[in-house]
Automatic annotation (TrEMBL):
The lineage of its organism: Bacteria, Pseudomonadati, Pseudomonadota, Gammaproteobacteria, Oceanospirillales. Transmembrane segments: none annotated. Residues 23-276 form the EAL domain. It comes from the Bacteria. This is Bifunctional diguanylate cyclase/phosphodiesterase.
Length: 277
């Protein structure tokens, strides 16, 4: 919790970020960021809403500039998606997440990690092989990995990409539909996707206590999840009231600043220790 709040002043340093973005707009700049090991992987816990126990963690990338400033992903992921280099970042994240899980499992830590996958990464012919090889390289069981794909990324999926997800699903990898409820035509294709989890977008959680319409949408997603035997995660929970509201709607798992902000791996290990000591 402390770390990201501490980073906030530098997070918004406009001059540094302008320079950083100019760098990442060029392919050479992005490769340099990878080669110089300037990306960091932070982790945000997902908890059981009833007893607040840790169920898994989501891996979220940050870019550490030589100045020490930290660039949040919404500043560079869209650019990397534009110039095609997102696949390299996503693969670095996947490997780093598995490496961290390996370290943690040997210390008896929690078992599951979720990584975000861009549509372009999924498009790659060797997507399934990459995931398989990364898992086996770090001796991570497929069941310990969850892939988060946004509803928008999945909206215009072709059969080939659905088959890739199904192959991973059949191996035991979890597949989550991220930012659920913000895209379109979800209901018409949801039953064709090999997904295991729906992540209710933060925008429905924001006003869930005061807006009956948002509570109604959430309730509808809950019944949808039940009917399709999907797990449900609510993201962006910031208050006790939101949490209680979600518990009363029978949402089991959640994520948000109320429980923990994203944090570096060492701090996450500390957090888990503090929570369960
Ligand atoms: P996302 O996958 O929807 O991740 C959730 C975002 O919400 C994260 O922002 C997280 O820090 C933030 N968040 C979590 N709980 C709360 C809360 O209670 N309140 C508020 N206000 N925010 C909360 P972050 O880490 O800045 O990431 C932004 C987006 O960047 C992610 O949204 C994801 O779409 C993308 N992203 C991050 N890492 C990767 C990656 O490795 N690969 C790809 N392709 N995309 C990534
Ligand atoms: Ca996500
Ligand atoms: Ca999300
Ligand atoms: Ca989001």
């Amino acid at each position: 919790a402390r770390t990201e709040r501490m980073q906030h002043p530098t997070f918004y340093s406009p001059t540094v970020q302008r320079q950083a973005l100019a760098q990442i707009r060029t392919e050479a700049g992005l490769h340099a960021a990878l080669a110089l090991d300037q990306f960091e992987l932070w982790f945000q816990p997902k908890v059981n809403l009833k007893d607040r126990s840790l169920t898994s963690v989501e891996a979220l990338v940050r870019w550490r500039l030589p100045s020490g400033d930290l660039v949040p992903p919404n500043k560079f992921i869209p650019i990397a998606e534009g110039n095609g280099l997102i696949t390299l970042i996503d693969r670095w994240v996947l490997a780093k997440a598995c490496e961290s899980m390996r370290t943690w499992q040997t210390q008896g830590g929690p078992a599951r990690v979720a990584v975000n996958i861009s549509a372009q990464h999924l498009e790659q012919d060797d997507f399934v092989t990459t995931v398989e090889q990364t898992l086996s390289h770090f001796s991570i069981s497929p069941a310990a990995l969850e892939l988060e794909l946004t509803e928008t990324a999945l909206a215009d999926l072709n059969q080939e990409n659905i088959d890739k997800l199904r192959a991973l699903r059949n191996m035991g990898v979890g597949i989550a539909l991220d930012d659920f409820g913000t895209g379109y035509c979800s209901l018409s294709y949801i039953h064709r996707l090999p997904i295991t989890t729906l992540k209710i977008d933060k925008c429905f959680i924001d006003n869930i206590v005061t807006e009956s319409a948002d509570a109604a949408v959430t309730q509808t997603i809950v019944s949808l999840a039940k009917n399709f035997h999907l797990k449900l995660v609510a993201e962006g929970i910031e208050t006790e009231e939101q949490c209680q509201c979600l518990v009363s709607l029978e949402v089991e798992t959640g994520q948000g600043y109320l429980f923990a902000r994203p944090m570096p791996f060492a701090e996450l290990q500390q957090w888990v220790g503090d929570e369960f000591a």
